[in-house]
Amino acid sequence: MCWLLLSLVAVAAAQGFDYFENYYNEIDIEDEQAEAKTRNALQSPLQRWPNPKLYYRISSEYSDEEAQNVRSALKTFDEQTCINFEELTEPIPSGQRYVYYKKSPQMCGTRVGYNPIPLFGSGSHDVLLTEHCLSKPGIIQHETLHVLGLYHEQSRADRDMFVVIDYDNIPRKYWSQFMAMSDKSTTTFNVPYDFESVMHYPKNAFAKDRNKPTIRALVNGEPVEREMGQVLGPSEGDLTKIRLMYCN
């Protein structure tokens, strides 16, 4: 399991920002080690959380507003899926696995799926969020969906049926960010390809020329430019996958 690198290019481009932050697990656009770091839903039950009730903790470095943004973002899963997030405020019981929302000056990212073996003796599954990421509920939900086991929508094993990637408009060191996952390790759960997924890159993600798309949709076999991806919140397709993973 690797730190998934989504770049906030996916958010920045969609929202018109002229800067980039880590967000595919999100890599910094200037990250020289991006290719080495990279690798739709995890197929192995061992990489899904063993119980739909997940405990979480919020860093004391968060402001009251930032902490409330996390709680509000997680409420969507409580209300629309069987996932139940319960905040830990008391000392963490020994051995308790929990999601830890931490502050980071540069990185927004997390590991994909459940890791049954805590790293370095820690029981936390860390989610790193910058001040900007903490201001966007959709980004918090995006990272939380990574925690639950979702990769990016344009990384689906069947994505070449729905999109075409313009590698000529992408720096070589970021080509790995557009790699399709294997159908041996991931599954779509037969959920239709979702251009509105909060897990989808925007059309000009990682573009050399921001005026030209790096991802085009295929319509009747022909590439066309269209909007894709958003940071408003999980789409119905995103939530359907979580229900299929945890609620049956």
TrEMBL record:
EC identifiers of the protein: 3.4.24.-
Top-rank taxon: Eukaryota
Residue positions binding Zn(2+): 142, 146, 152
Cofactor(s) listed: Zn(2+)
Annotated cofactor note: Binds 1 zinc ion per subunit.
Enzyme class: hydrolase
Peptidase M12A domain residues: 40-248
SUPFAM superfamilies: Metalloproteases ('zincins'), catalytic domain (SSF55486)
Record-given protein name: Metalloendopeptidase
Phylogenetic lineage: Eukaryota, Metazoa, Ecdysozoa, Arthropoda, Hexapoda
